[in-house]
Design brief:
heterodimer, A: 232 residues, alpha/beta, Rossmann fold, six-stranded mixed beta sheet, four-stranded antiparallel beta sheet, 7 helices, globular, B: 396 residues, 2 domains, eleven-stranded mixed beta sheet, two-stranded antiparallel sheet, 14 helices, 56% helix
């Protein structure tokens, strides 16, 4: 584990003894084994490891997309491992911003409408929703692309729209699964710089899964996973 | 942006497929309306029958005739029975050899009384007078006259399989004395009326003084059923018993002969709806499959299964509504201005008023939406139950 972090800072993510098993063809496959992890508030940390090491599974557990077989996951003081599906969905909509490798924008919506999408779950008025979405797009440098559809944007721009969508709800945690995986070097650098800014200037906690050592270098701390365990 | 708007855009995202689906639904709606309009038109004569008219026929079947003296028997008891007028008619079953392929109703009626008792047939006074004076005169529907090009004063010869002329050298020849129109749109404007007396003159002695049915107008329409029973009691002890029905029931007894056809049309209507549902279900399922990653993303950012299900059902509603609306937009000009007019003019005896009943149009539109919702339930359920992590994995 590469360490470069302030140990006295407040812990946002606290994982203890987390195990995740999958049943596959009558066999139980252990994907994660007794993991412990602390992630400080406002840090930008990376998860690296070979394919099948359990990076995405761990990210999904932290983001509340899946539940652990055993162990505890506490985010910002809340035990999410005990939450039911509905409560988890509500929790995600208030606390977590997602950034995916393939951007996962809705092709039928414009950039600003894509960013507005998570706000449909809130009681915010339509005009206020639009204002917040426009602000988020300005933050990611796409003020001039608000009315563009995803097909009219470059990969880097799409990913920035996705980042705007992730931050529009003002989450405490941003999870990014290979956010630069589909981008050229320049676009990838731009996205990483943006993430770095969000962390440093807006105090967002970012946890990023990546295969790319250059991307991991931008994080303040990198955790290496191998066969479901952290490598020392 | 709203959730409904989002669903609508998803429904329209694949324009070619949406266009084909909408067309499929529209064709189903048009076909459904066509069939239902045919059934409605066919049964309209029964539905819009006069409430104060009683039809008395042979108890066994309306094909068998009644003695003419029954008219006098009813007339003599009319005040006691609550009847204010009696007339009669016979089905002639004629056709014009010059227009062999044209079907129209031909009826021998009691010339002095028939048009008084059937006021929905509108005949000008001078025409009626000319008709009454000419024993071989005829009054024809305006639609029939227009179709066959008959003019007032024209001689027309008809053949009848039911009443062949007693003397083969003397065919049934009539003089068109005028046309009738109608006060109600459900009335067939293609019927050929002539004197029953002329028919009676020309049939064999054994068939003389026979009438097809009696028509009585009752003073109190609320008592039509009771009056019918009283009329039938007059002939209970006679050789030929009668069955008196209000006009609606009488017309329905005619329709009973076509019940198999009407039943088949009903069945085909249901099949059409089932096909429409399959078309919609397939389109919606394909759309949902294609959007696995988007649905998983929506779930990830906090949308609940119910939101996803509602979104899919909403898309189906949009498709059903557009298809239904498009179907109505096609059906109205096609049925009301095209096919309907053609049928009214050429098959007025069966379809006197071939227009889409308004409630049926609403029903077709509602069914298009309702069936779209029904068709979307399975795809919506599967989308709502999708595991987020699996949905996202399919992307990456």
């Amino acid at each position: 584990m590469t360490t470069n972090v302030d140990r006295t800072a407040e812990v946002l993510i606290r994982i203890r003894g987390v195990t995740k098993d999958y049943a596959r063809g009558g066999e139980v496959v252990k994907v994660l084994e007794a993991l412990d992890l602390d992630v400080n508030r406002g840090s930008f940390e990376a998860l690296m490891g070979p394919s099948g090491s359990g990076k995405t599974t761990l990210l999904n557990l932290i983001a509340g997309l899946d539940s652990p077989t055993s162990g505890t996951i506490e985010i910002d003081g809340q035990r999410i491992d005990r939450m039911g599906e509905g409560a988890l969905a509500k929790w995600r909509s208030n606390h977590v911003g997602f950034i995916f490798q393939s951007y996962n924008l809705m092709p039928v919506l414009t950039a600003v409408e894509n960013v507005e999408l998570p706000l449909l779950l809130t009681p915010v008025r339509a005009s206020e929703r639009r204002k917040r979405a426009e602000t988020a797009l300005r933050v990611v440098g796409l003020a001039d692309r608000m009315s563009h559809y995803p097909r009219q944007l470059s990969g880097g721009q799409e990913q920035r729209v996705a980042i705007a969508r992730a931050i529009v709800i003002d989450p405490v945690l941003l999870v990014a699964d290979e956010p630069t995986g589909d981008l050229d070097r320049q676009s990838a650098d731009d996205v990483l710089t943006l993430l770095d800014r969000l962390c440093k200037e807006m105090g967002k906690t970012i946890l990023m899964v990546t295969h790319d050592p250059a991307a991991a270098d931008r994080a303040s701390l990198t955790h290496h996973l191998d066969k479901g365990r952290f490598r020392a | 942006m709203t959730f409904v708007g989002f669903a609508a855009r998803n429904a329209l995202r694949n324009k070619f497929r949406t266009a084909l689906t909408v067309l499929g639904v529209a064709i189903a709606v048009v076909t459904f309306l066509l069939l239902r309009t045919a059934v409605a038109s066919w049964t309209q004569a029964a539905d819009f029958a006069a409430r104060d008219r009683l039809v008395t026929r042979h108890k066994v079947t309306f094909i068998m005739s009644l003695p003419l003296r029954y008219v006098d028997a009813v007339r003599s008891e009319a005040p006691r029975l609550g009847i204010k007028g009696v007339t009669w008619a016979s089905w002639f079953g004629g056709k014009d050899p010059a227009h062999d392929g044209e079907f129209f109703a031909t009826m021998a009626v009691d010339a002095p009384t028939y048009f008084e008792e059937v006021p929905e047939l509108v005949v000008a006074k001078d025409v009626l007078a000319a008709f009454k004076e000419d024993r071989s005169g005829a009054i024809v529907g305006d639609a029939l006259a227009a179709k066959l090009g008959w003019k007032v004063g024209q001689r027309v010869t008809l053949e009848s399989g039911i009443f062949p002329p007693e003397d083969p050298e003397k065919p049934w020849t009539f003089t068109v004395r005028g046309v009738y129109t109608a006060t109600a749109r459900n009335v067939d404007r293609s019927t050929f009326f002539f004197h029953w007396a002329y028919l009676n003159d020309g049939v064999a002695p054994v068939r003389k003084d026979q009438v097809g049915w009696l028509m009585s107008r009752v003073t109190d329409p609320a008592r039509t059923a009771d009056v019918g029973l009283a009329v039938d009691r007059l002939f209970d002890d006679k050789e030929i018993q009668t069955l008196s029905q209000d006009e609606r029931a009488f017309n329905q007894s005619f329709l009973a002969g076509f019940s198999a056809v009407l039943g088949a049309l009903d069945l085909v209507s249901v099949v059409i709806l089932a096909i429409m549902m399959l078309v919609l279900g397939n389109t919606i399922a394909m759309g949902v499959r294609e959007r696995t990653s988007e649905i998983a993303t929506m779930r990830a950012i906090g949308f609940l299964p119910k939101h996803i299900a509602l979104s899919v059902i909403g898309e189906a509603c949009v498709l059903g509504a557009i298809g239904g609306g498009f179907g109505l937009a096609i059906a109205y000009p096609f049925i009301e201005r095209g096919l309907g007019r053609f049928l009214e003019e050429n098959m007025g005896a069966f379809f006197p008023y071939f227009r889409i009943p308004t409630p049926m149009a609403f029903a077709a539109f509602g069914l298009a939406i309702a069936l779209a919702v029904l068709a979307s339930i399975l795809p919506a359920r599967s989308a709502a139950r999708m595991r987020v992590t699996e949905g996202l994995r399919r992307v990456a």
